[in-house]
Amino acid sequence: MPVVQSGLITEDRARRHIADPTITPIPTALFTDLYHVDAVYVAWKSGQLGDATFDLYTRSNPFGGGFMLVAGLEPALDYLRAFKYTWQDREYLDQLRGYEPAFLDYLRDLCFTGEIEAIPEGEIAFPNEPLLRVTAPFPEALLIESGILRTVGISTLIATKAARLTLAAKGRAVSDFAFRRAHEPFLAARSGYIGGCASTSFVAAAREYGIPASGTIPHALVQAYADELTAFRAVATALPEYALLLDTYDVAQGLENAIAVAKDVAASHGHRLNAVRLDSGDLDADSRMCRAKLDRAGLHDVQILVSGDIDEHKIASLLAAGAPVDGFGVGGNLGVGLGSIESGTVGGVLGAVYKLAWYEGNDEEGAARMKLAGGGNKSTWPGRKVPWRVGEFEHDIVELDGLPAPSNGRPLLQTIVKEGHLLREPTSIREIRGRAQQSMLALPDRLHDMTVAEPYEVRMSDAIRKLRDDTIANFKD
What we know:
By secondary structure, the chain is of the alpha/beta class. The chain folds into 2 domains: 3-143 and 353-476, nicotinate phosphoribosyltransferase (Alpha-Beta Barrel), CATH 3.20.140; 159-335, TIM Barrel (Alpha-Beta Barrel). It has helices spanning 11-19, 34-46, 73-81, 87-97, 101-108, 138-143, 145-169, 185-195, 203-209, 219-224, 228-238, 251-269, 283-296, 312-320, 332-335, 429-442, 462-476, and strands spanning 3-4, 9-10, 51-57, 68-69, 115-118, 124-125, 132-137, 173-176, 199-200, 241-245, 272-278, 303-306, 327-330, 353-360, 367-368, 385-390, 395-400, 409-411, 414-418, 421-422, 458-460. Helix 11 packs parallel to helix 12. It is elongated, with a radius of gyration of 26 Å.
């Protein structure tokens, strides 16, 4: 059986990963949109195989906020490592489109041979600056577009959401409860941890990435017993450390049962009630009632956790009201990166785009490329570009590659892949998480706000503006 790139992934293993949803899917070259394959066929037939540079960037921050927390580079590199057209892939494309046999042979031998420069995971980024830059032969650069956009877009969206949740929680733990709601659960759990979540309920992701796993109990377990007290006692005697869910029937009665069981089982078994969880109702009032009664019972160390349609705005509201909540479990709002109807913020997608900025045809030295139609933020900036951060978040500036660095500027892009070869070992998720924590500490306080009236300044250099004007003039001639 042939091996797909670097001996890591066999065709058989890749096929099993796609067919078996219990295994983390390994993307193949078919993780693309059909029009990309058609476009590459056209380019192949007409000989448009020169080197191209594409920029991946966004036009706005998600959630009405002031920043993005970059994530998804390592999964994107996994995608590139697996980028290979298997014989099954080529056979399917032949059935689908009837491409010439010579083109299918071309795809058989195709792998990524280009260069990737990217802002590292865990760094802060802003709209209109390249998060990632790809330079490669046009077919290679085009065929990876959808896979790269999907991975970086979803990951950055959810890492940013997790960072916002963590900011709102003001030092209290935020746990990822998103598995059952997430469209991309592995990416969601990984990105949530990078963004600041303390743990995940998704067991497979906890094992895959080394994320702390956490959980309480479901309502169904309580309902399975004749009464709540019996259910709580079963939990407490089975688990040395445990949490109890109070809102299956009545929160006040549930709390009384939890207190009684906690004291009895601590005496008989030495087992410890770590937390009680509220999943519905008036979380503010119920958390106050729970804290008061737990304290009166001497259970000062028992934490109060809340869940149930929690987002950063609800967390901020609860804490501003003085609710004595110690931790938050966040599901769909994190795993899908939702916005907030009540707060008028947009989420759900990052809106990242991947646009051609430079093309070196077979008979030319290379020329800037841009999209003109649509106006406003739909048009693009041409040229090979580098984003720089000036000072400690004074502003960012995007400059043409090769021009002098701005004063007190730090380049944000790092070369990760050159001539198709990865230049470094994979970065651990803990290192990325640590970088994210440092980035968030350095971010100006005004950009921590849930909604930001005045966005952070990203300047386009004079050289880029001139190149844009010249490119437009050339198109009009």
